[in-house]
TrEMBL record:
Residues 693-754 form the DUF4982 domain. The keyword ATP-binding does not apply. This is Glycoside hydrolase superfamily. Residues 106-230 form the Glycosyl hydrolases family 2 sugar binding domain.
Amino acid sequence: MAFGHSLKNACDFALLALCILAGNDLAFAEDAPAVGARDRVSLNAGWRFQRWTDKPDSVSYSTMKPWIMPSANDFIKNTAKRARRPSSEPANVTFAQPDFDDKAWELVDVPHDWAVKRPFYAGANAVIGGDMGRLPIHGVGWYRRAIQLDATDSGKSLLLDIDGAMSYAMVWLNGRFVGGWPYGYASFRLDLTPYARSGNNQLAIRVDNAMESSRFYPGAGIYRNVWLTKVSQQHVAYDGTWITSGQVSDQSATLDLVTIIENLSTASSATEIEVSTDIHVWDAASGKAAAKVGQFPSVKIAVDGGAKHTVNASTTLQNPRLWGPRPLQEPNLYIAMTRLQSGGRTLDEYHTRFGIRAVQYTGDGIKINGQRVYIQGVNQHHDLGSLGAAFNVRAAERQLEMLQDMGCNAVRTSHNPPSRELLDLADELGILIMDEIFDTWNSQKRRNDFHLIFSDWHEPDLRAFIRRDRNHPSVVIWSFGNEVAEQRARNGAATAQSLKDIVREEDPTRYTTVGSNNAGPNDAFTGVADIIGLNYQGEGRGTGAATFPDFRAKFPSKMILSTESSSGISTRGTYIFPVTTSNSITVSDSQGGDPRNRYVSAYELYAVSWGASPEKVFAAQDRYPYVAGEFVWTGWDYLGEPTPYDLSRSSYFGIIDLAGFPKDRFYLYQSRWNPTVKMAHILPHWNWPNRTGQVTPVHVFSSGDQAELFLNGVSQGVQKKAISSGSYRFRWDRVVYQPGELQVVTYKDGNLWANATMRTTGEPSGLHGSTYRDRKTIKADGADLLFISIAVVDQKGDVVRQSNNAITFSVQGPGEIVTTDNGDPTDMVAFPSPERKAFGGLALAIVRAKAGSSGKITVTASAKGLVSAEVVLEALS
Ligand code: GAL
């Protein structure tokens, strides 16, 4: 979401009708009439797209590099190192030419991920293997789109903002090369003005995605928003404001505002500009600015053509409403409205949403507004399950909401910059963010990853990333690396230091970290970042491994944080026998793993060899309370990295599966992280016709401290939670299976707390549909999504947890199924398929309303021999 800019979500085709000016080349005079405030137009709709797996053109990054590097100049500090555009132009490229006929190309809207809707690659020698999600992310993609400009655009700067294109993006306008940006996770701006003309303009964007470029699913294509900003030549620069709060208390807050004004005019004369900024409360309910509560003193400056000018202003706000993470605090926000005026004309209006909070990083954890906040965080990759990398606000919001229901209060954006909108959501929901930029530096993890361009691009990428994200109150930690090979290399500490220096230059207010899995307390690398960020180290990895006290002894006053913890693995609803009696064990084919079906037991005791069960991590945290908290690997399952079964398509690490169905682990985390929720959760399901008479352990996750389990009314014993011996669950390991009903009654402090039951079900008899958070209306804006869950139920309405009936989805009315899923990491049916087998009794359909049409949408789920389910929605246009 962008704030307060005059937003037009529809594509600018509407302007076409206004445009009768024939292609006057560069009809953008210096002394143009007043142009008013900025206009930020979405360019998301109506692209022509084509992809090739062989080389379709003569373009390559290495030959285009001299023309691409100048795009980075604003983010390179040493002016001598900035590139100058060569005097000659690069060779013409057919696909970039205005007269190229692209009618046969596919019509797509962005955000677009060309790979996610295609069939999966199966097998051991797949073109794209398990690590990258078995989807065809590789190849060259071209996107072409017309932009109409008319007389009112004359004299303006025309700025193309690409929020994310995977990867090696290159941009042409009217056949002429504009610039580019290789890192696929970066957001960047290019100035189209010198290449634009009134009338029809042809924009062409090329992306190039290599195989072996990532350890997880990267997505492919223009997978985030694209905007055209039309604004006076004198305007607030790209991500050109920065608001920090110095002294913060409930009584007052001092605010410092930096505004960078840029004058893109080629005239040598200076423009006199008055810069003023008002502060308004941000009203979360309406999503708009509310009452004005303060202002920064206005400043008059003169900015030469082609120059930039930095304006500093400070003010004090009385009785500020502070931003803080939920549930301990409230995420209050403000919005700063900056106006540039000259000779009575408004040149630009630019809005910056921000929050006021004080953060202290201590040897005993992080304090927000004076209060210790234990980090109950998760790692999240950027994909949105079956939607792939194509960003969607509603899908991301659902991910965060479910995490928050679990008691999660923090997200690490592993291992790359998230979308802008994800940070907006975190600001609004009150979720702390550890904002991370790189998975590799100079040394590779994969043949074609970021190490290829690290030396040229780490500085501009890092500076652009921080300037983009530093107004978000949710961002409390910058991470400039993850498990980089440099941890123990000779120059590793020096590289880390140079990256940290860049971060601290761009933002001295926040602390930095790096996720380290093998730099020990005595490695020079470890001391560089402000926060000791540990991946798996410390939580009890095994004999000889460094522990939290080792790091504490060496760095007594530094904050120590588990930047990655646990890496527990499981497949939702799958229980494998026998069950280990340990509370944490490495998965293997004979222990917790089922290599034939490629599933991992959901008793939630199994982890990868470098990880630990959730409970083992909890125990280490309870032993060493100075640790600031953890980011569990991972909150949601993600595409790629299907450890331990590489033939699968998606991960086993998630607490929530790829479709959004919580695994049992969800309730274990909830019992610790959200302890006021009265809950009890029983596992496994109780349909074991072949286990009658056999030992079938029953485990319960609950925020209570005592529990009694009954099987068919017979007590299986009372248990107290044995936290001191490292068990954060109740476990009855000697229960002998007989069909019927399990019931658990839990207590807290001697009082009844919560009950749960699990019954042996009958045969599947029908399907039952429900919507996420019971929402039944959907905005017909082409972007909003509704998530429909289908459960296979018996006659009593109990979910038949082991059923896998084939379900067919259909839609009547102005809606469509975007994708379906079931969270099964081995399901190789392409995501858009309306046919999806239930997995663990559940399946998901993601529905969108057709843009602009309102009315009733009926989604029907049917399966052979079962009563169908119907979910009726209303599309609102
Ligand atoms: C870590 C790594 C993550 C992920 C995880 C799986 O070592 O940083 O990206 O691969 O392991 O356990």
